[in-house]
Amino acid sequence: MNTGDTAWVLISAALVMLMTPGLAFFYGGMVRSKSVLNMLMMSFISLAVVSVLWVLYGYSLAFGNDIGAGLLGGFGNIGLKGVIGQLTGADGHQTPVLAFVMFQLMFAIITPALISGAIADRAKFWGWTLFIGLWVTIVYFPVAHWVFAFSSADGSTVGGWIANNLKALDFAGGTAVHINAGAAGLAVALVLGKRKGWPKEPMRPHNLPFVLLGAALLWFGWYGFNAGSALAANETAAVAFTTTTVATAAAVLGWLLVEQFRDGKPTTLGAASGAVAGLVAITPACAFVSPLGAIAIGVIAGALCSLAVGLKFRFGFDDSLDVVGVHLVGGLVGTLLIGFFGTTSVNSAGADGLFYGGGFSQLGKQAVAAFAVLGFSFVLTFIIAFVVNKTVGFRATEEAEVAGIDEAEHAESAYEFGAFSSARGANKGSVTAGATAVLEGSNKS
Amino acid sequence: MKLVTAIIKPFTLDDVKGALEQLGVLGMTVSEVQGYGRQKGHTEVYRGAEYSVDFVPKIKVEVVVDDTAVEKVLEAVVEAARTGKIGDGKVWVTPVDAVVRVRTGERGSDAL
Protein backbone atom coordinates (compact mmCIF):
# COMPACT_ATOMS: atom_id res chain seq x y z
CA MET A 1 0.00 0.00 0.00
CA ASN A 2 1.30 3.47 -0.92
CA THR A 3 0.71 5.73 2.08
CA GLY A 4 1.23 8.98 0.13
CA ASP A 5 -1.39 8.09 -2.45
CA THR A 6 -3.74 6.80 0.24
CA ALA A 7 -3.42 10.05 2.19
CA TRP A 8 -4.25 12.07 -0.93
CA VAL A 9 -7.33 10.00 -1.74
CA LEU A 10 -8.64 10.27 1.84
CA ILE A 11 -8.02 14.03 1.97
CA SER A 12 -9.66 14.42 -1.43
CA ALA A 13 -12.71 12.54 -0.20
CA ALA A 14 -12.98 14.97 2.71
CA LEU A 15 -12.55 17.93 0.33
CA VAL A 16 -15.38 16.68 -1.87
CA MET A 17 -17.54 16.16 1.22
CA LEU A 18 -17.15 19.88 1.98
CA MET A 19 -18.58 20.75 -1.43
CA THR A 20 -22.10 19.69 -0.44
CA PRO A 21 -22.44 22.13 2.48
CA GLY A 22 -20.66 24.66 0.23
CA LEU A 23 -23.31 24.07 -2.40
CA ALA A 24 -25.98 24.46 0.27
CA PHE A 25 -24.73 27.99 0.99
CA PHE A 26 -24.26 28.77 -2.70
CA TYR A 27 -27.91 27.88 -3.28
CA GLY A 28 -29.17 29.08 0.11
CA GLY A 29 -28.02 32.63 -0.46
CA MET A 30 -29.80 32.77 -3.80
CA VAL A 31 -33.29 32.05 -2.49
CA ARG A 32 -35.55 34.38 -0.54
CA SER A 33 -35.15 34.53 3.22
CA LYS A 34 -38.34 32.52 3.76
CA SER A 35 -36.90 29.42 2.08
CA VAL A 36 -33.20 29.39 2.96
CA LEU A 37 -33.43 26.65 5.58
CA ASN A 38 -35.25 24.32 3.21
CA MET A 39 -32.63 25.03 0.56
CA LEU A 40 -29.81 24.16 2.98
CA MET A 41 -31.65 21.04 4.13
CA MET A 42 -32.15 19.76 0.58
CA SER A 43 -28.37 19.49 0.27
CA PHE A 44 -27.69 18.36 3.82
CA ILE A 45 -30.19 15.48 3.68
CA SER A 46 -28.30 14.12 0.69
CA LEU A 47 -25.29 13.54 2.97
CA ALA A 48 -27.52 11.46 5.21
CA VAL A 49 -29.54 9.47 2.66
CA VAL A 50 -26.86 8.70 0.10
CA SER A 51 -24.18 7.72 2.64
CA VAL A 52 -26.43 4.96 3.96
CA LEU A 53 -27.59 3.75 0.54
CA TRP A 54 -24.02 3.79 -0.76
CA VAL A 55 -22.85 1.36 1.90
CA LEU A 56 -25.95 -0.82 1.59
CA TYR A 57 -25.96 -1.28 -2.19
CA GLY A 58 -24.91 1.91 -4.03
CA TYR A 59 -21.21 1.12 -4.26
CA SER A 60 -22.01 -2.36 -5.49
CA LEU A 61 -24.38 -1.14 -8.24
CA ALA A 62 -21.83 1.44 -9.38
CA PHE A 63 -18.54 -0.43 -9.00
CA GLY A 64 -19.43 -4.08 -8.56
CA ASN A 65 -18.63 -6.53 -11.35
CA ASP A 66 -20.75 -5.69 -14.41
CA ILE A 67 -23.99 -7.66 -14.87
CA GLY A 68 -23.85 -7.31 -18.66
CA ALA A 69 -23.29 -4.78 -21.46
CA GLY A 70 -21.64 -2.31 -19.08
CA LEU A 71 -24.96 -0.98 -17.84
CA LEU A 72 -24.94 -1.77 -14.12
CA GLY A 73 -22.71 -3.20 -11.43
CA GLY A 74 -23.72 -6.44 -9.78
CA PHE A 75 -24.69 -7.22 -6.21
CA GLY A 76 -21.35 -8.73 -5.24
CA ASN A 77 -20.38 -5.88 -2.93
CA ILE A 78 -23.69 -5.39 -1.09
CA GLY A 79 -23.01 -3.96 2.36
CA LEU A 80 -19.41 -3.40 1.20
CA LYS A 81 -18.86 -7.16 1.19
CA GLY A 82 -15.43 -8.11 -0.08
CA VAL A 83 -14.12 -4.54 0.12
CA ILE A 84 -12.39 -4.29 3.47
CA GLY A 85 -8.73 -5.24 3.35
CA GLN A 86 -8.61 -5.04 -0.45
CA LEU A 87 -6.19 -2.85 -2.40
CA THR A 88 -6.58 -1.17 -5.79
CA GLY A 89 -4.24 0.64 -8.18
CA ALA A 90 -1.05 -0.03 -10.12
CA ASP A 91 1.97 -1.69 -8.53
CA GLY A 92 3.69 0.72 -6.18
CA HIS A 93 0.60 2.95 -6.05
CA GLN A 94 -1.87 0.72 -4.34
CA THR A 95 -4.49 2.25 -2.05
CA PRO A 96 -7.27 0.68 0.01
CA VAL A 97 -10.47 0.07 -1.96
CA LEU A 98 -12.29 1.51 1.05
CA ALA A 99 -10.63 4.91 0.45
CA PHE A 100 -11.96 4.81 -3.12
CA VAL A 101 -15.40 3.81 -1.79
CA MET A 102 -15.50 6.93 0.41
CA PHE A 103 -14.11 9.18 -2.34
CA GLN A 104 -16.79 8.05 -4.78
CA LEU A 105 -19.48 8.32 -2.09
CA MET A 106 -18.94 12.08 -1.95
CA PHE A 107 -19.65 12.32 -5.70
CA ALA A 108 -22.86 10.36 -5.21
CA ILE A 109 -23.87 12.79 -2.45
CA ILE A 110 -23.30 16.07 -4.26
CA THR A 111 -24.90 15.03 -7.56
CA PRO A 112 -28.51 14.86 -6.30
CA ALA A 113 -27.86 17.93 -4.14
CA LEU A 114 -27.03 19.86 -7.34
CA ILE A 115 -30.52 19.11 -8.66
CA SER A 116 -32.20 20.87 -5.71
CA GLY A 117 -31.48 24.32 -7.13
CA ALA A 118 -33.96 23.70 -9.94
CA ILE A 119 -36.89 23.40 -7.53
CA ALA A 120 -36.11 26.00 -4.89
CA ASP A 121 -38.93 27.35 -2.71
CA ARG A 122 -41.53 24.71 -3.56
CA ALA A 123 -40.56 21.11 -2.74
CA LYS A 124 -41.95 19.08 0.13
CA PHE A 125 -39.05 17.89 2.23
CA TRP A 126 -39.99 14.21 2.52
CA GLY A 127 -40.96 14.14 -1.14
CA TRP A 128 -37.48 15.43 -1.96
CA THR A 129 -35.84 12.95 0.41
CA LEU A 130 -37.66 10.03 -1.21
CA PHE A 131 -36.75 11.44 -4.62
CA ILE A 132 -33.05 11.43 -3.70
CA GLY A 133 -33.17 7.79 -2.64
CA LEU A 134 -34.94 6.74 -5.84
CA TRP A 135 -32.86 8.98 -8.08
CA VAL A 136 -29.45 7.79 -6.94
CA THR A 137 -30.65 4.18 -7.17
CA ILE A 138 -32.22 4.40 -10.62
CA VAL A 139 -30.15 7.13 -12.27
CA TYR A 140 -26.88 7.94 -10.50
CA PHE A 141 -25.55 4.49 -9.56
CA PRO A 142 -25.99 3.13 -13.11
CA VAL A 143 -24.52 6.25 -14.74
CA ALA A 144 -21.56 6.26 -12.32
CA HIS A 145 -21.01 2.64 -13.41
CA TRP A 146 -21.05 3.62 -17.09
CA VAL A 147 -18.56 6.45 -16.61
CA PHE A 148 -16.39 5.76 -13.57
CA ALA A 149 -16.12 1.95 -13.37
CA PHE A 150 -13.02 0.88 -15.29
CA SER A 151 -12.46 -2.80 -15.94
CA SER A 152 -9.54 -4.20 -13.97
CA ALA A 153 -6.34 -4.92 -15.92
CA ASP A 154 -6.60 -8.68 -15.31
CA GLY A 155 -10.23 -8.70 -16.44
CA SER A 156 -11.52 -10.00 -13.10
CA THR A 157 -13.84 -6.99 -12.71
CA VAL A 158 -15.72 -5.58 -15.70
CA GLY A 159 -16.78 -1.93 -15.70
CA GLY A 160 -19.19 0.39 -17.54
CA TRP A 161 -19.76 0.95 -21.28
CA ILE A 162 -18.77 4.62 -21.55
CA ALA A 163 -15.44 4.13 -19.79
CA ASN A 164 -14.43 0.83 -21.37
CA ASN A 165 -16.29 0.29 -24.67
CA LEU A 166 -17.01 3.80 -25.98
CA LYS A 167 -13.83 5.18 -24.39
CA ALA A 168 -15.20 8.68 -24.03
CA LEU A 169 -13.07 10.78 -21.71
CA ASP A 170 -14.59 12.09 -18.49
CA PHE A 171 -11.93 12.53 -15.84
CA ALA A 172 -14.00 13.65 -12.85
CA GLY A 173 -17.66 13.64 -13.84
CA GLY A 174 -18.71 16.12 -16.53
CA THR A 175 -21.24 13.55 -17.73
CA ALA A 176 -21.99 11.44 -14.64
CA VAL A 177 -22.26 14.41 -12.28
CA HIS A 178 -22.99 17.63 -14.15
CA ILE A 179 -24.85 16.70 -17.33
CA ASN A 180 -26.66 14.13 -15.22
CA ALA A 181 -27.71 16.65 -12.54
CA GLY A 182 -28.47 19.36 -15.11
CA ALA A 183 -30.79 17.15 -17.17
CA ALA A 184 -32.44 15.91 -13.97
CA GLY A 185 -32.88 19.52 -12.82
CA LEU A 186 -34.73 20.35 -16.01
CA ALA A 187 -37.00 17.32 -15.56
CA VAL A 188 -37.92 18.07 -11.92
CA ALA A 189 -38.47 21.75 -12.69
CA LEU A 190 -40.94 20.71 -15.40
CA VAL A 191 -42.74 18.19 -13.17
CA LEU A 192 -43.08 20.55 -10.21
CA GLY A 193 -43.95 23.57 -12.34
CA LYS A 194 -43.30 27.24 -11.83
CA ARG A 195 -43.32 29.01 -8.53
CA LYS A 196 -46.34 31.20 -7.92
CA GLY A 197 -45.54 34.61 -9.34
CA TRP A 198 -42.58 33.50 -11.49
CA PRO A 199 -41.28 35.17 -13.60
CA LYS A 200 -43.24 38.38 -12.92
CA GLU A 201 -42.56 38.74 -9.22
CA PRO A 202 -39.03 39.64 -8.31
CA MET A 203 -37.39 36.76 -6.42
CA ARG A 204 -34.13 38.30 -5.46
CA PRO A 205 -31.27 36.47 -3.71
CA HIS A 206 -31.51 37.24 0.00
CA ASN A 207 -27.85 36.82 0.93
CA LEU A 208 -25.18 37.26 -1.73
CA PRO A 209 -22.32 36.89 0.78
CA PHE A 210 -23.59 33.30 1.36
CA VAL A 211 -23.47 32.73 -2.39
CA LEU A 212 -19.87 33.86 -2.66
CA LEU A 213 -18.90 31.92 0.46
CA GLY A 214 -20.54 28.82 -1.01
CA ALA A 215 -18.79 29.30 -4.35
CA ALA A 216 -15.43 29.64 -2.58
CA LEU A 217 -16.04 26.43 -0.60
CA LEU A 218 -17.00 24.69 -3.83
CA TRP A 219 -13.83 25.89 -5.52
CA PHE A 220 -11.73 24.65 -2.60
CA GLY A 221 -13.48 21.29 -2.42
CA TRP A 222 -13.26 20.91 -6.18
CA TYR A 223 -9.51 20.29 -5.88
CA GLY A 224 -10.47 17.01 -4.23
CA PHE A 225 -13.03 16.38 -6.95
CA ASN A 226 -10.68 16.93 -9.88
CA ALA A 227 -7.10 16.47 -8.66
CA GLY A 228 -8.30 13.72 -6.31
CA SER A 229 -9.71 11.83 -9.28
CA ALA A 230 -6.13 10.95 -10.21
CA LEU A 231 -6.43 8.60 -7.20
CA ALA A 232 -2.73 9.14 -6.62
CA ALA A 233 -0.49 11.99 -5.52
CA ASN A 234 1.19 12.34 -8.90
CA GLU A 235 1.74 14.42 -12.03
CA THR A 236 -1.82 13.85 -13.26
CA ALA A 237 -3.18 15.24 -10.00
CA ALA A 238 -0.95 18.30 -10.38
CA VAL A 239 -2.14 18.81 -13.96
CA ALA A 240 -5.77 18.58 -12.83
CA PHE A 241 -5.10 21.01 -9.98
CA THR A 242 -3.56 23.51 -12.40
CA THR A 243 -6.23 23.29 -15.10
CA THR A 244 -8.96 23.49 -12.46
CA THR A 245 -7.50 26.70 -11.07
CA VAL A 246 -6.92 28.46 -14.34
CA ALA A 247 -10.18 27.42 -16.02
CA THR A 248 -12.16 28.66 -13.04
CA ALA A 249 -10.32 31.96 -13.02
CA ALA A 250 -10.91 32.40 -16.76
CA ALA A 251 -14.60 31.57 -16.38
CA VAL A 252 -15.04 34.27 -13.73
CA LEU A 253 -13.58 36.76 -16.20
CA GLY A 254 -15.69 35.41 -19.06
CA TRP A 255 -18.95 35.71 -17.09
CA LEU A 256 -18.13 39.18 -15.75
CA LEU A 257 -17.19 40.50 -19.19
CA VAL A 258 -20.52 39.36 -20.62
CA GLU A 259 -22.27 41.09 -17.72
CA GLN A 260 -20.31 44.28 -18.22
CA PHE A 261 -21.22 44.45 -21.89
CA ARG A 262 -24.80 43.28 -21.50
CA ASP A 263 -25.92 44.73 -18.16
CA GLY A 264 -23.39 47.45 -17.50
CA LYS A 265 -22.17 46.11 -14.15
CA PRO A 266 -20.09 43.14 -12.99
CA THR A 267 -22.01 41.42 -10.17
CA THR A 268 -21.10 39.33 -7.15
CA LEU A 269 -23.61 36.71 -8.23
CA GLY A 270 -21.98 36.70 -11.66
CA ALA A 271 -18.50 36.14 -10.22
CA ALA A 272 -19.74 33.25 -8.05
CA SER A 273 -21.70 31.74 -10.94
CA GLY A 274 -18.77 32.13 -13.33
CA ALA A 275 -16.49 30.28 -10.93
CA VAL A 276 -18.92 27.38 -10.68
CA ALA A 277 -19.44 27.31 -14.46
CA GLY A 278 -15.67 27.10 -14.94
CA LEU A 279 -15.33 24.35 -12.35
CA VAL A 280 -18.11 22.37 -14.00
CA ALA A 281 -16.65 22.70 -17.49
CA ILE A 282 -13.09 21.75 -16.56
CA THR A 283 -14.24 18.72 -14.53
CA PRO A 284 -14.31 16.19 -17.40
CA ALA A 285 -11.30 17.76 -19.11
CA CYS A 286 -9.00 18.60 -16.22
CA ALA A 287 -6.41 15.84 -16.81
CA PHE A 288 -6.63 15.83 -20.61
CA VAL A 289 -5.97 19.45 -21.64
CA SER A 290 -3.04 21.83 -21.30
CA PRO A 291 -3.21 24.85 -18.99
CA LEU A 292 -3.79 27.03 -22.07
CA GLY A 293 -6.56 24.73 -23.24
CA ALA A 294 -8.05 25.07 -19.77
CA ILE A 295 -8.11 28.86 -20.08
CA ALA A 296 -9.99 28.55 -23.36
CA ILE A 297 -12.49 26.10 -21.86
CA GLY A 298 -12.98 28.40 -18.87
CA VAL A 299 -13.63 31.55 -20.88
CA ILE A 300 -16.01 29.74 -23.21
CA ALA A 301 -17.89 28.13 -20.31
CA GLY A 302 -18.14 31.39 -18.36
CA ALA A 303 -19.46 33.34 -21.32
CA LEU A 304 -21.80 30.61 -22.62
CA CYS A 305 -23.30 29.81 -19.23
CA SER A 306 -23.93 33.47 -18.48
CA LEU A 307 -25.96 33.59 -21.69
CA ALA A 308 -27.59 30.18 -21.09
CA VAL A 309 -29.16 31.20 -17.78
CA GLY A 310 -31.52 33.38 -19.83
CA LEU A 311 -32.98 30.34 -21.62
CA LYS A 312 -35.45 29.62 -18.84
CA PHE A 313 -37.19 32.94 -19.45
CA ARG A 314 -37.40 32.29 -23.16
CA PHE A 315 -38.77 28.76 -22.76
CA GLY A 316 -40.75 29.40 -19.59
CA PHE A 317 -39.38 26.73 -17.23
CA ASP A 318 -38.65 27.77 -13.65
CA ASP A 319 -35.16 26.32 -13.13
CA SER A 320 -34.93 28.56 -10.11
CA LEU A 321 -31.17 28.64 -9.48
CA ASP A 322 -29.99 27.78 -13.00
CA VAL A 323 -28.99 24.14 -12.65
CA VAL A 324 -29.58 23.79 -16.39
CA GLY A 325 -27.76 26.97 -17.40
CA VAL A 326 -24.71 26.21 -15.27
CA HIS A 327 -24.44 22.42 -14.83
CA LEU A 328 -26.05 21.05 -17.98
CA VAL A 329 -24.56 23.66 -20.30
CA GLY A 330 -21.22 23.79 -18.45
CA GLY A 331 -21.03 20.00 -18.39
CA LEU A 332 -21.75 19.80 -22.14
CA VAL A 333 -19.17 22.50 -22.88
CA GLY A 334 -16.44 20.69 -20.95
CA THR A 335 -17.31 17.22 -22.19
CA LEU A 336 -17.48 18.26 -25.85
CA LEU A 337 -14.45 20.58 -25.77
CA ILE A 338 -12.23 17.61 -24.87
CA GLY A 339 -12.87 16.68 -28.50
CA PHE A 340 -11.16 19.94 -29.49
CA PHE A 341 -8.58 20.66 -26.80
CA GLY A 342 -7.64 17.13 -25.67
CA THR A 343 -3.94 16.37 -26.02
CA THR A 344 -1.85 13.32 -25.25
CA SER A 345 1.12 15.59 -24.53
CA VAL A 346 -0.44 16.21 -21.11
CA ASN A 347 -1.61 12.70 -20.37
CA SER A 348 -0.94 9.55 -22.38
CA ALA A 349 -4.21 8.11 -21.13
CA GLY A 350 -6.07 10.96 -22.89
CA ALA A 351 -6.63 11.57 -26.59
CA ASP A 352 -5.76 14.15 -29.22
CA GLY A 353 -8.69 16.38 -30.11
CA LEU A 354 -9.47 18.27 -33.28
CA PHE A 355 -6.92 21.02 -32.56
CA TYR A 356 -4.15 18.48 -31.92
CA GLY A 357 -4.51 16.44 -35.10
CA GLY A 358 -6.87 13.86 -33.65
CA GLY A 359 -9.70 14.54 -36.09
CA PHE A 360 -13.34 14.17 -35.13
CA SER A 361 -13.18 10.71 -33.60
CA GLN A 362 -12.85 11.78 -29.95
CA LEU A 363 -15.44 14.53 -30.39
CA GLY A 364 -17.91 11.93 -31.65
CA LYS A 365 -17.29 9.71 -28.62
CA GLN A 366 -17.70 12.67 -26.28
CA ALA A 367 -21.01 13.61 -27.90
CA VAL A 368 -22.38 10.06 -27.64
CA ALA A 369 -21.47 9.91 -23.93
CA ALA A 370 -22.89 13.38 -23.21
CA PHE A 371 -26.22 12.82 -24.94
CA ALA A 372 -26.64 9.26 -23.68
CA VAL A 373 -26.38 10.50 -20.09
CA LEU A 374 -28.54 13.55 -20.84
CA GLY A 375 -31.35 11.49 -22.37
CA PHE A 376 -31.25 8.70 -19.79
CA SER A 377 -31.24 11.15 -16.89
CA PHE A 378 -33.97 13.41 -18.26
CA VAL A 379 -36.45 10.62 -19.05
CA LEU A 380 -35.97 8.60 -15.86
CA THR A 381 -35.89 11.67 -13.62
CA PHE A 382 -39.12 12.90 -15.16
CA ILE A 383 -40.79 9.57 -14.36
CA ILE A 384 -39.39 9.39 -10.81
CA ALA A 385 -40.43 12.96 -9.99
CA PHE A 386 -43.88 12.41 -11.49
CA VAL A 387 -44.44 9.26 -9.44
CA VAL A 388 -43.19 10.88 -6.21
CA ASN A 389 -45.47 13.84 -6.82
CA LYS A 390 -48.53 11.64 -7.43
CA THR A 391 -47.90 9.38 -4.43
CA VAL A 392 -46.32 10.99 -1.36
CA GLY A 393 -46.45 14.50 -2.84
CA PHE A 394 -43.50 16.55 -4.09
CA ARG A 395 -44.85 20.02 -4.85
CA ALA A 396 -45.73 22.06 -1.76
CA THR A 397 -49.15 23.70 -1.49
CA GLU A 398 -49.58 27.25 -2.75
CA GLU A 399 -50.31 28.36 0.80
CA ALA A 400 -47.03 26.89 2.08
CA GLU A 401 -45.15 28.44 -0.80
CA VAL A 402 -46.50 31.91 -0.14
CA ALA A 403 -46.01 31.71 3.63
CA GLY A 404 -42.52 30.30 3.09
CA ILE A 405 -41.39 26.71 2.75
CA ASP A 406 -39.21 26.99 5.88
CA GLU A 407 -42.17 27.54 8.13
CA ALA A 408 -44.42 25.08 6.30
CA GLU A 409 -41.95 22.20 6.06
CA HIS A 410 -39.64 22.70 9.03
CA ALA A 411 -41.54 24.95 11.48
CA GLU A 412 -38.51 27.22 11.65
CA SER A 413 -37.44 30.58 10.33
CA ALA A 414 -33.84 31.36 9.51
CA TYR A 415 -33.69 34.89 10.81
CA GLU A 416 -35.11 36.94 13.66
CA PHE A 417 -36.35 40.04 11.89
CA GLY A 418 -38.36 41.43 14.80
CA ALA A 419 -35.45 43.31 16.31
CA PHE A 420 -36.35 46.97 15.83
CA SER A 421 -34.87 47.70 19.19
CA SER A 422 -31.47 49.28 19.34
CA ALA A 423 -28.57 47.55 21.06
CA ARG A 424 -29.54 49.47 24.17
CA GLY A 425 -33.02 47.99 24.03
CA ALA A 426 -31.62 44.52 23.52
CA ASN A 427 -29.60 44.82 26.72
CA LYS A 428 -32.75 45.58 28.61
CA GLY A 429 -34.08 42.27 27.45
CA SER A 430 -36.74 43.46 25.05
CA VAL A 431 -35.52 41.06 22.39
CA THR A 432 -36.52 38.10 24.54
CA ALA A 433 -39.99 39.50 25.10
CA GLY A 434 -41.53 37.24 22.47
CA ALA A 435 -40.13 34.09 24.03
CA THR A 436 -41.20 35.18 27.52
CA ALA A 437 -44.71 35.80 26.31
CA VAL A 438 -44.96 32.27 24.97
CA LEU A 439 -43.80 30.83 28.31
CA GLU A 440 -46.31 32.91 30.24
CA GLY A 441 -49.01 31.82 27.88
CA SER A 442 -48.28 28.15 28.47
CA ASN A 443 -48.28 28.65 32.25
CA LYS A 444 -51.73 30.16 32.07
CA SER A 445 -53.19 27.15 30.34
CA MET B 1 -55.57 64.04 20.78
CA LYS B 2 -53.72 63.47 17.58
CA LEU B 3 -52.13 60.51 15.85
CA VAL B 4 -48.73 61.40 14.44
CA THR B 5 -47.64 59.02 11.68
CA ALA B 6 -44.10 59.24 10.34
CA ILE B 7 -42.66 57.32 7.38
CA ILE B 8 -38.89 57.51 7.76
CA LYS B 9 -35.66 56.00 6.53
CA PRO B 10 -34.93 52.87 8.59
CA PHE B 11 -31.56 54.03 9.86
CA THR B 12 -33.02 57.21 11.38
CA LEU B 13 -35.29 55.21 13.71
CA ASP B 14 -32.95 55.36 16.70
CA ASP B 15 -32.66 59.14 16.41
CA VAL B 16 -36.40 59.59 16.05
CA LYS B 17 -37.04 57.35 19.02
CA GLY B 18 -34.47 59.25 21.08
CA ALA B 19 -36.00 62.61 20.17
CA LEU B 20 -39.47 61.42 21.15
CA GLU B 21 -38.22 60.05 24.45
CA GLN B 22 -36.64 63.45 25.19
CA LEU B 23 -40.05 65.05 24.77
CA GLY B 24 -41.55 62.60 27.25
CA VAL B 25 -43.52 60.59 24.72
CA LEU B 26 -44.09 57.35 26.61
CA GLY B 27 -44.82 54.88 23.85
CA MET B 28 -44.85 54.30 20.16
CA THR B 29 -45.69 51.68 17.54
CA VAL B 30 -43.14 50.86 14.85
CA SER B 31 -43.64 48.82 11.72
CA GLU B 32 -41.51 47.81 8.76
CA VAL B 33 -43.22 49.05 5.63
CA GLN B 34 -42.41 49.40 1.94
CA GLY B 35 -43.40 52.07 -0.48
CA TYR B 36 -42.29 54.85 -2.75
CA GLY B 37 -42.75 58.56 -3.22
CA ARG B 38 -40.83 60.90 -5.48
CA GLN B 39 -37.73 58.88 -4.70
CA LYS B 40 -39.12 55.95 -6.77
CA GLY B 41 -37.52 52.50 -6.75
CA HIS B 42 -34.41 51.24 -8.46
CA THR B 43 -33.29 48.47 -10.82
CA GLU B 44 -31.21 45.43 -9.87
CA VAL B 45 -29.80 42.77 -12.21
CA TYR B 46 -29.31 39.13 -11.17
CA ARG B 47 -27.78 36.74 -13.70
CA GLY B 48 -28.91 39.04 -16.48
CA ALA B 49 -32.52 39.22 -15.27
CA GLU B 50 -33.59 42.78 -14.45
CA TYR B 51 -35.72 43.35 -11.41
CA SER B 52 -37.28 46.73 -10.88
CA VAL B 53 -37.57 47.23 -7.17
CA ASP B 54 -40.54 49.61 -6.87
CA PHE B 55 -40.94 49.57 -3.14
CA VAL B 56 -38.22 50.86 -0.88
CA PRO B 57 -38.05 49.62 2.72
CA LYS B 58 -39.17 52.26 5.24
CA ILE B 59 -40.15 52.43 8.89
CA LYS B 60 -43.53 53.68 10.02
CA VAL B 61 -43.64 55.24 13.49
CA GLU B 62 -46.99 55.97 15.11
CA VAL B 63 -47.56 57.92 18.31
CA VAL B 64 -50.73 59.33 19.85
CA VAL B 65 -50.11 62.65 21.64
CA ASP B 66 -52.00 65.39 23.38
CA ASP B 67 -53.10 68.33 21.18
CA THR B 68 -50.72 70.67 22.97
CA ALA B 69 -47.70 68.48 22.21
CA VAL B 70 -48.33 68.00 18.49
CA GLU B 71 -46.15 70.83 17.19
CA LYS B 72 -43.16 69.87 19.33
CA VAL B 73 -43.47 66.22 18.38
CA LEU B 74 -43.71 67.07 14.68
CA GLU B 75 -40.66 69.28 14.93
CA ALA B 76 -38.66 66.65 16.80
CA VAL B 77 -39.49 63.84 14.39
CA VAL B 78 -38.74 65.91 11.30
CA GLU B 79 -35.49 67.16 12.79
CA ALA B 80 -34.35 63.63 13.68
CA ALA B 81 -35.39 62.01 10.39
CA ARG B 82 -33.97 64.63 8.05
CA THR B 83 -30.85 63.87 6.00
CA GLY B 84 -31.63 66.46 3.33
CA LYS B 85 -31.67 63.85 0.59
CA ILE B 86 -34.61 62.65 -1.47
CA GLY B 87 -36.49 59.83 0.27
CA ASP B 88 -36.39 61.18 3.81
CA GLY B 89 -40.09 60.43 4.20
CA LYS B 90 -43.30 62.11 5.37
CA VAL B 91 -45.05 62.92 8.62
CA TRP B 92 -48.76 63.53 8.96
CA VAL B 93 -51.21 64.22 11.75
CA THR B 94 -54.75 62.89 12.09
CA PRO B 95 -57.36 63.57 14.79
CA VAL B 96 -58.11 60.81 17.29
CA ASP B 97 -61.62 60.58 18.79
CA ALA B 98 -60.95 58.37 21.78
CA VAL B 99 -58.16 56.47 23.50
CA VAL B 100 -58.63 53.82 26.19
CA ARG B 101 -55.90 52.19 28.29
CA VAL B 102 -56.76 48.53 28.26
CA ARG B 103 -55.48 47.70 31.75
CA THR B 104 -57.30 50.43 33.71
CA GLY B 105 -60.06 51.64 31.42
CA GLU B 106 -58.77 55.24 31.68
CA ARG B 107 -59.83 57.42 28.77
CA GLY B 108 -58.57 60.43 26.86
CA SER B 109 -55.34 62.16 27.80
CA ASP B 110 -55.02 60.05 30.96
CA ALA B 111 -54.70 57.00 28.78
CA LEU B 112 -51.66 58.32 26.89
Main structural class of chain B? alpha+beta
Helix segment tally of chain A: 17
Write down the overall geometry of chain A. globular
Strands across the major sheet of chain A, in which order? Answer: 1-2
Question: What labels describe this entry?
Answer:
heterodimer; A: 445 residues; mainly alpha; two-stranded antiparallel sheet; 17 helices; 1% strand; disordered C terminus; B: 112 residues; alpha+beta; four-stranded antiparallel β-sheet; two-stranded antiparallel ribbon; 2 helices; elongated
Compact description:
The complex is a heterodimer of chains A (445) and B (112). Chain A is mainly α.
Written overview of the protein:
- The complex is a heterodimer of chains A (445) and B (112).
- Chain A is mainly α and 445 residues long.
- Helix content of chain A is 65%, strand content 1%.
- The longest helix of chain A is centred in the C-terminal third of the chain and has 30 residues, at 361-390.
- The radius of gyration of chain A is 23 Å and the shape is globular.
- With 112 residues, chain B is of the alpha+beta class.
- A four-stranded antiparallel beta sheet of chain B has the order 2-5-1-6, with helices on one face.
- The longest helix of chain B has 12 residues, at 70-81.
- Chain B starts with a strand and ends in a 17-residue tail after the last strand.
- The chains are: A mainly alpha (445), B alpha+beta (112).
- Chain A binds chain B through residues 199, 202, 204-205, 259, 262-263, 265, 267, 269-270, 273, 306-307, 309-310, 313, 322, 325, 417, 420, 422, and chain B through 13-14, 17, 30, 32, 44-53, 59.
